[in-house]
Design goal:
Layout: H1 8-19, H2 23-36, E1 41-47, E2 53-58, H3 65-71, H4 83-86, H5 98-104, E3 107-113, E4 120-125, E5 133-137, E6 142-148, H6 155-158, H7 164-181, E7 186-191, E8 194-199, H8 208-216, H9 218-221, E9 225-231, E10 234-240, E11 253-257, E12 260-262, H10 265-275, E13 291-296, E14 302-303, E15 314-315, H11 318-354, H12 360-367, H13 389-404, E16 417-419, E17 422-428, E18 432-437, E19 445-449, H14 450-465, E20 472-481, H15 484-492, H16 495-500, E21 504-507, E22 512-518, H17 526-539, H18 549-557, H19 566-578, E23 587-590, H20 597-600
Parallel strand pairs: 1-7, 11-13
Antiparallel strand pairs: 1-2, 2-6, 3-4, 3-6, 4-5, 7-8, 9-10, 10-13, 11-12, 14-15, 16-17, 17-18, 18-19, 19-23, 20-22, 21-22
Helix pairs in contact: 1-5, 2-7, 10-11, 14-18, 14-19, 15-17
């Protein structure tokens, strides 16, 4: 077959295959054009799920008569004029393919009137020769795009369309996403002449939760945490759900980059990492991150021209953006954990006042479950909270049954798992594994400190990595140190000692600029953790000395979890047995308390 130029209609249909996947794709492209035109009122009319009719009306700036036919041509756009514009795109559309692609697979009518034009004009095409015909029309200032009989000339594409209900559900989701991006615009969605969604324009930022609630539901806004993070010209704002309020479905996950809805793997990883393992609550019970977030950064620092449908972006400083988002979300979640801990402590105090029948022996034993060392990080390996009322009742019931009936393994938690000679019954206070020995006739109970097990296991891994060097993590915002003693210590250290720990810095006589830290310390207060690290190295007199175990335990503390599921308890039980030779240091025997008569009955 000889090489030849493709016909215009065929080239446009090929382009349509990249941009127009289904009716929802048409709605997305046309609504984004309306927003770029400055519209603050947009009406979206749908019939038969979009296969019969899609009509988008707006009150934007409109298109002059002389440009109507050109607007339907391929690669025609008013958004960019040079390569420099392409490198700093702020508009939603810019390729100039949407209208041409849609008109190649549907019957399209474009009616528009600028404010400076006396009358409106319309242009229409029907997918064959692509020649637009013009005629006068009656229309207020703004634009209406009518798309009829989508895929009428491409039967293969039409047969892959789903039911009207399914296709409209995709359209409704597109409208939701756009409505969350532009609070200042009124959106009106109709299906088969019936109103389905109406989002009034929100003028005051304080009223933004009204739009969020109408799109995501009040269950999200009632518990969502406000996110506000700023670093130079980069900012992150929005709402994120605490762990207990995250949904089991991934249906409330909206992330916007400079106002553009994105599904980016880098950003998704940062969000997931911010939650850590707290969303894994057991088999079949895992939750999904739930959020509405907005990332703003200079247009020249992000490339939006990497996907035909503009669903993905490429950041010029991807690692820094990842860590910026991670830090902002972790800060919000940590602040919520602290406030909830205070509220829980107050509620538990009240509970204890009205439940005097609880065994004093049991409460006294729980008081003794304090960590064996202090933590440099707030909230990590700190004093445990009191058991909840549910935990107390379950434990009391277990003890009561044990005192009156033959002893048998009764799981207190959601499930019991046997690991070697040990059986995991439950997780107490979110960090202690309640264990039972299988071989003992009396079947005593023990508490395994999961935080200490994890800390010692990680410390051993870090000590092994020291021989080849630890992984470092670049800081989004470099940290300056000016303490004269620290500067002097750095000057005395051998050059590769800090590098082996993953630290990168620039040193002058007056200050040291920390650019990279060990991965374990990236969420710590670098202005405090790095000086401690430097003092430890200085005390060991050089890079080739073996660092003490206390240093690796300190470093590992920054990576220890705050709470554990039963599945995670089983993992660290195995690690305790295999890596730590089942060291008894981390075990605490549980003495069965003598319950009052009222409880035993």
């Amino acid at each position: 077959m000889p090489i030849q130029i493709l016909p215009v209609s065929l080239a446009n249909q090929i382009a349509a295959g990249e941009v127009i996947e289904r009716p929802a794709s048409v709605v997305k492209e046309l609504v984004e054009n309306s927003l770029d035109s400055g519209a603050d009122q947009i009406i979206i009319e749908i019939e038969q799920g979009g296969r019969r009719l899609i009509r988008i009306r707006d009150n934007g700036s409109g298109i002059p008569r002389d440009e109507l036919a050109l607007a339907l041509s391929r690669h025609a756009t008013s958004k960019i004029t040079s390569l420099a514009d392409l490198e700093a795109i702020l508009s939603l559309g810019f390729r100039g393919e949407a209208l041409a692609s849609i008109s190649s697979v549907a019957r399209l009518t474009l009616t528009s009137k600028p404010a400076t034009q006396a009358t409106a004009w319309e242009a229409w095409v029907e997918g064959q020769d692509m020649r637009a015909e013009l005629a006068p029309a009656s229309h207020p200032t703004g634009t209406t795009v009518t798309v009829e009989d989508l895929f009428f000339n491409t039967p293969a594409r039409r047969k892959f369309m789903r039911t009207d209900k399914t296709e409209f559900a995709h359209i409704e989701e597109v409208v939701k996403r756009i409505a969350l991006a532009r609070f200042d615009v009124k959106f009106h969605l109709l299906h088969n002449q019936k109103q389905v969604r109406l989002y009034p324009a929100i003028r005051a930022e304080a009223d933004a939760t009204q739009r969020i609630s109408s799109v995501c539901g009040s269950s999200f806004t009632d518990t969502a945490l406000r996110v506000e993070e700023q670093a130079g010209s980069v900012s992150l704002s929005g709402w994120i759900a605490p762990v207990h309020a995250c949904r089991h479905q991934a249906d409330v996950q909206y992330f916007y980059v400079n106002g553009r809805m994105m599904k980016d793997r880098l950003l998704a990883h940062a969000i997931r990492q911010a939650y850590g393992e707290s969303l894994q609550q057991g088999i079949g019970e895992e939750r999904s991150p739930t959020y509405v977030l907005y990332l703003e950064l200079p247009a020249q620092d992000v490339d939006v021209n990497v996907h035909p449908a503009k669903h993905e972006v490429r950041f010029h400083q991807a690692r820094q953006i990842h860590d910026f988002v991670l830090h902002g979300l972790r800060s919000a979640l940590a602040a919520a954990d602290n406030s909830q801990g205070a509220a829980h402590a107050a509620a538990e105090h009240q509970y204890q006042d009205v439940n005097a029948q609880v065994s004093a022996d049991f409460l006294q034993q729980q008081e003794q479950l304090q960590p064996r060392h202090a933590s440099p990080l707030p909230g990590i390996m700190s004093a445990p909270v009191k058991p909840s009322a549910t935990e107390l009742r379950a434990t009391q019931q277990f003890y009561s049954q044990a005192s009156t009936a033959p002893r048998s393994p009764v799981p207190v938690g959601p499930r019991a798992a046997v690991m070697g000679q040990w059986q995991v019954l439950s997780v107490v206070q979110q960090r202690m594994a309640l264990l039972q020995q299988q071989d003992s006739a009396t079947q005593p109970l023990f508490l395994l400190d999961l935080q200490q097990v994890q800390q010692h296991c990680i410390a051993g891994q870090l000590a092994q990595q020291w021989t080849t060097g630890l992984a470092g993590q670049p800081l989004l915002i470099p940290v300056q140190l000016t303490d004269a003693k620290i500067l002097a210590m750095i000057g005395e250290l051998e050059g590769n000692s800090l590098a082996r720990l993953g630290v990168q810095l620039e040193s002058t006589r007056q200050q040291v600029i920390i650019k990279q830290v060990p991965a374990a310390l990236r969420q710590s207060d670098v202005s405090q953790s790095i000086p401690y690290l430097i003092r430890t190295l200085a005390e060991q007199a050089g890079a080739e000395s073996d660092l003490p175990q206390s240093f690796w335990l300190w470093l590992a503390t920054h990576m220890v979890q705050r709470e554990y599921s039963v599945t995670q308890a089983e993992h660290w039980l195995t690690s305790w047995q295999q890596q730590l030779a089942a060291a008894p240091t981390f075990l605490t025997p549980v003495q069965l308390p003598t319950l009052p008569p009222a409880v035993r009955s």
